[in-house]
Amino acid sequence: MVMPGLVIPCIQKVVKMVRTCEIDGCDRPYCANGKCHRCYTREIHRERFANDPAFRRASINANHRRRVRETGGKVDESLDIFQVFEEENWICQICGDQCDPLLRDRDPDMVTIDHIIPVSKGGSHTRANVQTAHFRCNMEKQATIHSDAL
């Protein structure tokens, strides 16, 4: 029998149920639409990147500039790699074949920007040091400097 006014402490621990993000491998608490903030913003970014050419162009240019800055290289903020592609008529400057501007996701024939003197070797991200290249040609070249670039 419990006497009035007597408080009995609860010995059971209260467990708060926290729903987690629905994306596989993510265990963060969810915020919106069943996803955590990080997964939700990534999804929005991917959709915008796929559907908005101006956003894609700006993102790619910003990514190139950021990578060069991280290595301490010189960066031309006004350089637009898509202008380089258009100036060179989407032709690979390594093998001379046409690059397909519609290919993505590391397709061997997709277009990439090649740093003639690699950034890792002290090259800059300026118009004089970049050229159009196929993904496969750029990967074969890697961080080497062709003798005609010297």
Structure description:
- The structure is a single chain.
- This protein has 150 residues and is mainly alpha-helical.
- It has a single domain, classed as DNA Binding (I), subunit A.
- Helices cover 31% and strands 7% of the residues.
- The chain has a two-stranded antiparallel sheet with strand order 1-2.
- Helix 1 crosses helix 2.
- It is elongated, with a radius of gyration of 26 Å.
- The model has no long low-confidence stretch (mean pLDDT 84).
Features:
mainly alpha, 150 residues
Calculate the terminal CA-CA distance, rounded to whole Å: 95 Å
- What is the SS-derived class? mainly alpha
* Strand order in space, largest sheet: 1-2
Poorly predicted ranges: none
Examine the coordinates and then state which fold CATH places here, giving the name of the CATH topology.
DNA Binding (I), subunit A
Quickly give the CATH architecture: Orthogonal Bundle
- CATH class wording: Mainly Alpha
Main sheet: strands, sense, barrel: 2 strands, antiparallel
**Tally of individual helices:** 4
**Average of pLDDT:** 84
Give the H and E element order: HHHEEH
| Alpha carbon gyration radius | 26 Å
What's the domain count? 1
Assign an overall shape: elongated
| Annotation, overall tally of beta strands | 2
Strand content: 5-15%
Helix content: 25-40%
